[in-house]
Input
Amino acid sequence: MKTSIALIGFMGTGKTVVGKALAWKLNREFVELDTLIEQKAGKPIPEIFQQDGEVAFRELEIEVAKEVSGNKNQVIACGGGVVLNKINIDRLKKDSVIVYLTASPQVILERVSDGGDGWERPLLKASNKAEKIQELLRFRKPFYEQAADIRVNTSKLDIGAVAEQIINKVKQVENFSL
Ligand code: S3P
Output
């Protein structure tokens, strides 16, 4: 039986806030891959990208995804690019139902802009952020869809309501124990 939930989806789809609420409601441990990567690297994500490059970041992401995928009873908030390396999803799927959070490009733009959730994503540093989001979304959508067991739209995000929707949907997953 699977006992964990892994949240995937584009930047700004609410993986962290929803994940925390979900973990609290389900009395499970909340873990965030981005935080584990920062701890391992000893520096914040923008510095990892700037000093070591995206490939180094992805290698750290593979390491932490592997580490957490062996644990039980967790809610795991993944970084938006976790789906880019299939090995991550293969490993996470051993104990996690994969929940794909979506939001419209416009909502994503608002959430990741200044005054949104407060940190500048290295991959969205572009003169035209809206275009960059569209481009990355187009490329990544098939990866998210392929990985997802369940899908929830967070565009009209009410954190508690999204968490409840997830709980109702995971209850219907056969090999998941709540
Ligand atoms: C990334 C998303 C970020 C972070 C890094 C790369 C991506 O996480 O892992 O900046 O490739 O989409 P969030 O999805 O939590 O913003």
Summary: The two ends are 10 Å apart (CA to CA). The beta strands are 4-8, 29-32, 74-77, 96-102, 150-153.
